[in-house]
Amino acid sequence: MTTAQLYLNCLPILPEIILSAVICLVVLLDMFVPLGRSRVVCGLVAFAGTIVALQVVINPPVAVEAALGGTFGGMITMDGLSQFFRMLFLGGAAITIVFTLGSVETIHYRQGEFLSLILGATLGACLLVASNNFLMFFLSLETLSLCSYVLAAYIKHQRLSAEAGLKYLLYGAVASGVMVFGISYFYGMTGTVQINGVINSVMIASSMPGFNVVPFLLATVLVLAGLGFKMAMVPFQSWAPDVYQGAPTPVTAFLSVVSKGAGFAALLRVTLPFFATNATVANATAGLAGMAHLPVLFAILAVATMTFGNLVALRQTDVKRLLAYSSIAHAGFLLMGMSVFQPDSARAIMFYFFMYFVMNLGAFWVVIVVINRIGGSDLAHFRGLAYRNWKLAAAMFIFLISLTGIPPTAGFVAKLILFKVVISAGISAMQGAVMTPASWFYFGLAIVGVINSAISLVYYMKIMRAMAFERSDDSSRLDLNWVEAGYAMAFAAATVGLLYFEPIANLVNQL
Amino acid sequence: MDKMLLTLITFLPLAGMVAVLLAPGKAHNLIRGIAVVTSGVVFALTCWLWWVFDPTALASHGYDARTWIEIPWINSFHVYYRFGVDGLSTLLIVMTGFLSFLATFVGFSVKKQVKGFYALYMLLMTGMFGVFMALDFFLFYVFWELMLLPMYFLIGIWGGPRKEYAAIKFFIYTLLGSVLILLVMIAYYFQVAADPKTADFAFNIPWLVANQPFHGASPAFKHLLFWGLFIGFAIKVPIFPFHTWLPDAHVEAPTAISVILAGVLLKMGGYGILRFNYPLLPEVGSTDWVMWFLAVLGVVNIIYGAFCALGQTDFKRLVAYSSVSHMGYVLLGVAVLKEEGVNGAIFQMFAHGLSSAMMFMLVGVLYDRAHHREIARFGGIATQMPVYFGLAVVGFFASLGLPAMVGFIGEISVFLGAFKYSMPLTAFATLGMLLTAGYILWTMQRVYMGNPKPQYAEFPDANKWELISLVPLAATCILFGVLPALAMNIYLPSTQLFLKMFAQ
After folding, report:
1. Do A397 and B149 touch (CB under 8 A)?
2. Contacts of A43 (CB under 8 A, 6+ apart)
3. Whether the predicted pLDDT of A288 surpasses 50
4. Which of A403, B88, B162, B179 has its CA 20 to 30 A from that of A357?
């Protein structure tokens, strides 16, 4: 490889290179800057570096366009999917860094390490969505995971945090092991670890007579286990509540958007070529028996995930833990989009994820502020918040109704577009005015989704109730600094403003 | 300027909300001042709308061309920022402006969290105006839901002893209704957007009404759509058996909010039925059994509501049930699809908006002094508060439907329409008038007549803030009773357009 070639190869991953450089810089700075100042200095450097990387993703250098497709011998691929998710991950990292600076939970620890771990996890996530090779895929997933394990256990003297880290590590190790086992099946069946190569072989083989679907399905399910763990999908969700509750809240926010997003991005990466063929939909019209197995599998997982998340969330009294279950439920909604298996549904998933990203980060920011100022994330700490600081409470109301999916918020349009995709799949499966099993299947899925939205209202309303209708023993005013108030307001404004969703729709339509 | 008028009316309260939020929380009088000024300006703008609206010069789509505004909003989803008014909405908008201005003064009795109260109140106003103006299904739905949350908090925070129960009941009922409306909206979207040629009209209400995308669909499916919309709106009206949220919400809500609930929010149900339910699915609405069923349901509402009102011991609950009874006339008037009936139904909405708002204010005045609402414990108020009593007579007689009062015109017009449809049913429905007279006269007798009671001796008469809100209502109750044409002329061409859909 000549220098010029190397240069051309490196350009597409310029954001990742910048991130790596910033990680080194932050770790070094942390050693030389005194502890008192390291928080601000390292924070600003990390933030600036992430923003630069984000800029490079949004406005890529000209040569990237030329290298679109593949680089490093096909290890890395650049397309709409990877651009979209890299943007989200880098944005999420930048926001998490601000969260970290605004939170008191990690104030007694050196920030350099913490920030470099967040950047490291982001690096893993960015490479994961861009990787076109199972080896690369696994390595980036592990980079993301390893950083996350440490981040979850970051508050060393707290039992909950340590427990969270350990649980996360144990579950994660098993899930990765299972996934690698699945990848080995793919390698055995097709003789390659290139993702597009595997997909091509599977597509060709499946059109042959006598194709045995069982090993293929088995391998898919095994790989899905590794990704499902990241997405907090039932039955791989049991780590999520403990980790979300125990980890420092900025980390929880990070895990709930970037880590979960990485799972979905990777899932889309391996399934997207199947979407484009539309083959499964054609099969679907032939009836449930002829329907491909994957949509059914995803639908079952979606229903299980959202129902489990919502039902268990009903009993929670800790807001952080409640939001953990709510994020499991949202994973279920996203999986509902997966079961449609069309390019449109991939767009709907990305669209939903963008909205979820904004409202969920906003909700976690309010939790961080409440922990900062009141000292905990229990429902009791939210009592009477509307009377102690109406701005914070109003922002939280907006996030909660958005998470439920009530207009005029981002969550409403997200659910609307997602349900639209599912219902139109049902309509297109109809033969004239006659319902087929496939259309019953999709309509049924949509109904389950609507019922789940209704259930979610109950537990979101529990928080609203505590904030507005109950009073705390301490009814003194809560004074926030401008970062705390401004950030909450900005997220709330974005959540309402995204009702005008044209730009986001255009963004995902580039896929 | 006319083009901006509807936008201004809708979003000026939002600006008022921002101003209220920026004001210091302790400056109660400043906040009240902002609220009064904002709602006053909005009311003036609605009057201007009344002035510029020319009922005889409607555009081909049936709405006023000068104020019509249509801007692409979200292209990829075919959503437009589409506002327009016809006679029906103009009347209701003016009524909303009037009532929300007067209710601002009633809200002065709220002493805690004044800032939050008026901020949510202003937000509620935006939602209400938006609902009456939006002619894009998506936009309409957003405004419809926008009212839900402020109302929930207004009842839940500033309400009476059982406020939380009432607030959550209101929330769940209304949300259930709006989910049904949403489902119908989605069905229309899929039907229209499937064809690229018509996709851009997916949420265009005038277009959907004119082109009837479900014309060729199976009757069963059309019925599904019709009843989905109907239940969604019936919950708001409220139509028996979906009315049970209403007594709770009205009784627990603070007076100003009861006024808005009874005066404006109930009309949204009626408006929805007239604007969406029948025009979108005229074939279902003019089916024989549907007409019968809905007319009977309207009569059930009238009689049942009146009987419930007779049985109440709580003054405010009685007024709440009288709303159930009076809104029954609206359904009866619409269901028979006769010109007099529909005209009467619209007038009844207007009349009930004025009279029920006044009755809730009257109850509120008494409650602020006595701190209870038990009818049996009152008596002889007339001698202690003569001015207040004078106004009460106007309000209650307007509600009773006394000739030369606003309530009479709506009821008699509905009966004229219903009479053409079915004489026995109408004869039975007139029983409602009798019952109404019964519970209103009996209540007045128990509360205002009789010997003065010593514990109420030191009650001051209505103060200036109460008079500011009560006197204009009393004046309009009489004015529109004597000159109903003032209000009727504005929507007669629109009802004719409405009825043309059923003429074939």
Report:
1. yes
2. A97, A100, A101, A111, A115
3. no
4. B179
CA of B81: which chain A residue's CA is closest?
Answer: A500
What φ, ψ does residue A412 adopt, rounded to 5°?
A: -65, -50
Contact criterion met (CB below 8 Å) for B399 and B359: yes
| Residue matched to tokens 């391998």 | A219
B393: which residues sit within 8 A by CB, 6+ positions away? B444
What is the 3 state secondary structure string of A137-189? HHHHHHHHHHHHHHHHCCCCCCHHHHHHHHHHHHHHHHHHHHHHHHHHHHHHH
Q: Is the peptide bond before A60 cis (omega within 30 degrees of 0)?
A: no
pLDDT for B172 equals 87
Q: Are A456 and A313 in contact (CB under 8 A)?
A: yes
Read off φ and ψ for residue B110, nearest 5 degrees.
-75, 125
CB contact under 8 A, B164 and A457: no
Buried b (16+ CB within 10 A) or exposed e, B404-428: ebbbbbbbbbbbbbbbebbeebbee
Q: How many residues does chain B have?
A: 504
Residue A36 CB coordination number (10 Å): 7
Token pair for A344:
């449109």
Interface residue A476 vs chain B (CB under 8 A): no
Q: Give me the interface pTM, i.e. the ipTM.
A: 0.88
Confidence of residue B127 (pLDDT cuts 50, 70, 90): very high
Digit-coded pLDDT (tens) for A123-167: 999 999 988 889 999 999 999 999 999 999 988 888 888 899 999
Q: What's the DSSP call for residue A336?
A: H
Q: Which residues of A touch B163 (CB under 8 A)?
A: 469
Contact A18/A71 with Cβ under 8 angstroms? no
Interface of B with A in 392-451 (CB under 8 A): none
Query: Using one digit for the tens of pLDDT, what is the confidence trace for B228-255?
Result: 999 999 999 889 888 899 999 998 999 9
Number of CB pairs, chain A paired with chain B, less than 8 A apart? 59
When mean pLDDT is compared over A70-79, A468-477, B465-474, the highest value belongs to: B465-474
Task: Give the model's pLDDT for residue B354.
Answer: 92
- pLDDT over threshold 50, residue A281: no
Q: In this predicted structure, which of A484-488, B82-86, B212-216 has the lowest mean pLDDT?
A: B212-216
Segment 411-450 of chain A within 8 Å of chain B by CB: 412, 416-417, 419-420, 423-424, 427, 433, 450
Give A237-295 as a DSSP string: -THHHHHHHHS-HHHHHHIIIIIHHHHHHHHHHHHHHHHHH-HHHHHHHT-TTTS-HHH
Share of chain B above pLDDT 90, in %: 50
Tell whether the model's pLDDT for residue A291 goes beyond 50: no
Chain B residues in contact with A417 by the CB 8 A cut-off are 77
- Contact list, B115 vs chain A (CB under 8 Å): 390
What pLDDT is attached to residue B220?
Answer: 86
Three-state secondary-structure class, residue A472: coil
- Interface mutation target, options A416, A421, A460, A476, chain B, most CBs of B under 10 Å: A416
What single DSSP character describes residue B76? G
What is chain A's mean pLDDT, rounded? 86
Contact A424 B190 (CB under 8 A): yes
Residue A73 contacts by C-beta under 8 Å, 6 or more apart in sequence? none
pLDDT at A278 over 60: no
Residue A357 corresponds to which amino acid?
F
Length of chain A: 511
Residues of chain B positioned with their CB less than 8 A from the CB of A404: none
Mean pLDDT, range B346-367, rounded to an integer:
92
Alpha-carbon distance of B325 to B306, in angstroms, equals 5
Tokens coding B474: 């009393």
